[in-house]
Amino acid sequence: MKKLGVAMMVILFLAVLGGAVWYIASRTAWVTGTRPAWWCAGYGVAVVLSLTAMATYAGKFTASPLMHLFTVLFCHLCAVLVILLLTLLAVDMVHLIVPFGKTVFGICVLAITVGVSAYGIIHAASPELKEVTIELPHLDKEVTAVQLTDVHLGHFRGRKHLQKLVDMVQAAGPDVIFFTGDFIESWYNCSEDVIAPMKELKAPVFFVDGNHDTYVNAAYVKKLCRAAGMRVLENEATEYAGLQIIGLDYMVADNTARDSMHAALSNETIQSVMPRMGVSDAMATVVLHHSPVGAGYMEAAGADLFLAGHTHGGQFFPLTLINDRMFEYNRGLYRRGRLQVYVSCGSGTFGLPLRLGTDSEVTLLHLRPLKQ
Q1: Mean pLDDT in the chain?
Q2: Half-sphere exposure of 158 (CA within 13 A, CB side)
Q3: Phi, psi of 154, rounded to the nearest 5 degrees
């Protein structure tokens, strides 16, 4: 039954993909006055190569200059094709209401596609500082923290991008830094030299891994983090600045649930680990986990704040709408009983290097004592 469900999903995906390729090709052929079959073949090849680039970019073989160029080229091409599809749909709807010639149609589609693609790619590479104030019980004085997450160093983000993030963090002057995973997404740009800017940070950094760190090699990524001066937490608790900090490895919520985007990576679950963490009833407790799952088990254990990333907030429209239904906690601040949950959109991108409807963020958290 499970295999049948997977097969149906694959068939549905291929049908939608094929329909999208046919639609783009037929509208391009109409504008240019050419045969749609040739456009369909060309777009089809471009889509296959783009999907191949996104599916293989984490592999060691993509670290070569040639494969890096292939990955960057076709992932950017895929981003443009997505914008082209959305633009065609929007202009077609207007065209149904107010008909106009195919020359005007083509110019509008080309101008919008180029403009939106350029904006989305540039916007994704321009992180912003987002400030959030959270009141916590058992906190004696305000603690200023920064949350970094989903940096995704790899084919699209390297040392220059990381230096920009480090400079932003330094300017904010936090007491502590929480890094909630997906630091590195491919073997390209996976080195001590690339992450060297992390050594400049004056505040202590507490790190937990994410799914993309495990796709590369979780043990190696953690080794690089430790070499850069970060404190890697592996299902353990520590204390700093009046906070109890619990760091969890990337895992699913429990044995009955599966991560909505990835399979379980270990036998441990948040349900099995949280009772062992010894949550303090005398200190404000912050839990770090890459994916925003298992909040109920953290609340039951007595935690006060859960910081996560992973979702990217959907990254670009219309996935922003889909994500709101996929994830109970997608982006921003939520409350679940005594537990507060903050999900950052992250400062990097996955797959398509663009953002539309979300921001690349570094989060400045003002943790303040709870007002009685």
Answers
A1: 90
A2: 12
A3: 170, -130
Is residue 326 within 8 Å of 94, Cβ to Cβ?
A: no
The DSSP output letter for 268 is: -
CA 17 to chain centroid: 23
Per residue in 226-277, pLDDT tens?
999 999 999 999 999 889 999 999 998 888 766 555 555 667 899 999 999 9
The residue length of the chain stands at 372
Tell me the β-bridge partners of 132. 365
Q: Is 340 helix (H, G, I), strand (E, B) or coil?
A: strand
- 265 touches 250 (CB < 8 A): yes
* Helices 2-32/65-97 angle, 10° precision: 70
**Confidence label for 280 from pLDDT (cuts 50, 70 and 90):** confident
Q: Which pairs count as long-range contacts for 232-235, CB under 8 Å and 24+ apart, including other chains?
A: 232/207, 232/208, 233/206, 233/207, 233/208, 233/288, 234/208, 235/268, 235/273, 235/276, 235/277
Q: Closest Cα to residue 48, out of 26, 81, 5, 87?
A: 81
Structural domains present in the chain:
2-124 (no CATH), 130-369 (3.60.21.10)
Six token digits for residue 206: 């507490």
3-state secondary structure of 179: strand
The distance between the two most distant Cα atoms of the chain, rounded to a whole number of Å, is 73
Q: How far apart are CA 84 and CA 112, in angstroms?
A: 8
Q: Residue 18: how many CA atoms within 13 Å on its side-chain side?
A: 6
Q: Per-residue pLDDT for 371 more than 90?
A: no
pLDDT tens per residue, range 310-336: 999 999 888 888 888 888 899 999 999
Q: Over the stretch 331-369, which tens digit does the pLDDT of each residue have?
A: 999 999 899 999 999 999 988 899 999 999 999 999 999
According to DSSP, the residues that pair with 232 across neighbouring strands are 207
